[in-house]
Amino acid sequence: MGLMRRFSNIFKAKASKTLDKYEDPRETLDYSYERTLEMLQKMRRAVADVATSRKRIELQAQQLQRSAAKLEGQASQAVAQNREDLAREALTRRQSIATQLTDLQGQHDQLKAEEARMVEASQRLQAKVDSFRVRKETMKANYTAAEAQTRVNEAISGIGEEMGDVGLAMQRAEDKVAQMQARSGALDELMASGALDDASMSSDRLQAELDRGFAEPAVEAELARLKGELTGGSTTAKQLDAPDEAAARSGAQAPAEAPAEEDRR
Amino acid sequence: MIVRISGEGQFEVPESHVDELNRLDGDLTKAVDSDDEAQFTAALQALLTSIRTAGQELPADYIGPSDLVLPSPDATIHEVREVLGDEGLIPG
């Protein structure tokens, strides 16, 4: 037997098993209707779960994008300071974030497609619920006619089949959401550990080194100025009388003030 | 006859198209038997496309059983096996 028929047989057997509860088809009509309503509610919750999972991925992606942008900025700062080692480190981290982002994008697209399919499926189920509600009352009223009985059975197995289908779709969505949640959790842990480097962790060390790169030349200049003052100051008593002036000059304007100092000597 | 594509809805397919469906089903069965995922996806798409093209989609409020039920377009061999259960895929 081909796959198509075997799949059909098993699918239908599973779908009808849930509806074999009552002997009187009129009771089965009511039971089927209740079950379909329940199914519709479950379906709506499942759609909400998928949407929540999708939003979580969106938040993670935003966070990773911010980290990537920050690292990009740090890399160019490092290049400007001729610190190729730091630039390389920043770019390496940015690269691993880019890989994660591509992965997240793929998961996001999958969830989005799943969500759209489920929204469509719940709309289909809603249409069936509405139509079934009207028809089941007519069918119950006409049940005594043999022909009506056949139609009741058809309607019941039709709605049972739909429920089986929706149930299968929900199962698939739940599996996907569970997979995504596990991966999102793992990614959160990676980010928290700093291994993937979200902006809060080890990139701050990178930033500290870059800041030091900016600060060091200024510190060197300041040091040289102080040394110059000390060697000059030991020969003139006047310099020792003006400690306030020395303190005021500790800013970046020091070289500009140097000629005035020479004049006073 | 009425064919359901899982997750997509029901289609009314003319009886004259059954031979074509059986031929495409043969390809699908072969792909599952040889556990070839790429071939499976291609064969499933071919089968479903043929149903959508030859058939007429039934309205959402139609309530009735299908003669055939097929896996959804993005189903994998693994998922199909799960529906088929423990009996595996030994041709019956």
What does this structure look like?
The complex is a heterodimer of chains A (265) and B (92). With 265 residues, chain A is mainly α. Helices cover 86% and strands 0% of the residues of chain A. In chain B, strands 3-2-1-4 form a four-stranded mixed sheet, covered by helices on one side. In chain B, helix 1 packs antiparallel against helix 2. Chain B is globular, with a radius of gyration of 13 Å. Classes of the chains: A mainly alpha (265), B alpha+beta (92).
Summarize this, please?
The complex is a heterodimer of chains A (265) and B (92). Chain A has 265 residues and is mostly helical. Chain A has helices spanning 3-17, 25-80, 84-141, 146-193, 203-233, 237-240, 243-248, 254-264.
Q: Sheet with the most strands of chain A?
A: none
Order of helical and strand elements of chain A:
HHHHHHHH
Structural class of chain B: alpha+beta
How many strands, what sense, and barrel or not for the largest sheet of chain B? Answer: 4 strands, mixed
Strand element count of chain B: 4
Indicate the low-confidence ranges of chain B by residue numbers: 88-92
> What topology, given as strand order, has the largest sheet of chain B?
3-2-1-4
Helix/strand-derived category of chain A reads: mainly alpha
Distance N terminus to C terminus of chain B?
23 Å
Annotation field: number of helices of chain A? 8
* Beta-strand content estimate of chain B: 5-15%
Average pLDDT confidence of chain A is: 80
The quaternary state of the protein chains shown equals heterodimer
Rounded to an integer in angstroms, the radius of gyration calculated over CA atoms of chain B is 13 Å
- What letter string, H or E per element, gives the SSE order of chain B? EEHHEEH
N- to C-terminal separation of chain A? 110 Å
State the largest interface. Answer: A-B, 34 and 35 residues
Tell me the Rg of chain A in angstroms: 37 Å
Tally of helical segments of chain B: 3
Q: Fraction of residues of chain B in helices?
A: 40-55%
**Total count of strands of chain A:** 0
